[in-house]
Amino acid sequence: MIDLWRQGEMTLCLSKEIVDEYIRVLQRLGLEEEELEEILSLFARGFHCLFTSKTPSLRIIDEDPADDKLFECAVALKAEYIISGDAAVVRVENYMGIKVIGPKEFTQKLGS
């Protein structure tokens, strides 16, 4: 997904909460510090990114309400997709016309 974003194949919709989560996930996955700094620098420059500071308050994912931030940001920025590897998020499938899919399914759609 990072490569698709870097190549301009997708635009990320970001909020402060989502950036914070991306940092935690990328660190947990063992991303090198230099690469993490590069990604944060690209975020800061708005490289293929849209940012929002105001999001609606939504309650969608009962199992993990912290995942609601994905939907809040997507609604605020009128995203076309939410791409997530979290099974609880992907189970939603569609929210207000926003398609919810996994990374593998997204890359397959992009290829077709």
Quick tags:
112 residues; three-stranded mixed sheet; 6 helices; globular
Describe this structure in words.
- The strands form two sheets. A three-stranded mixed β-sheet has the order 3-5-4.
- It has six helices and five strands.
- With 112 residues, it is α/β, with parallel strands linked by helices.
- The protein has one domain (2-111): 3-Layer(aba) Sandwich (Rossmann fold).
- The two termini are 16 Å apart.
- The mean pLDDT is 94.
Brief summary:
This protein has six helices and five strands. The chain is of the alpha/beta class. The strands form two sheets. Strands 3-5-4 form a three-stranded mixed β-sheet. A two-stranded parallel ribbon has the order 1-2.
Largest sheet: 3 strands, mixed
Integer count of domains: 1
Q: From the alpha-carbon coordinates, what is the Rg to the nearest angstrom?
A: 14 Å
The SS-based structural class is: alpha/beta
What is the class in the CATH system? Alpha Beta
SSE sequence, one letter per element: HEHHEHEHEEH
So what's the overall shape? globular
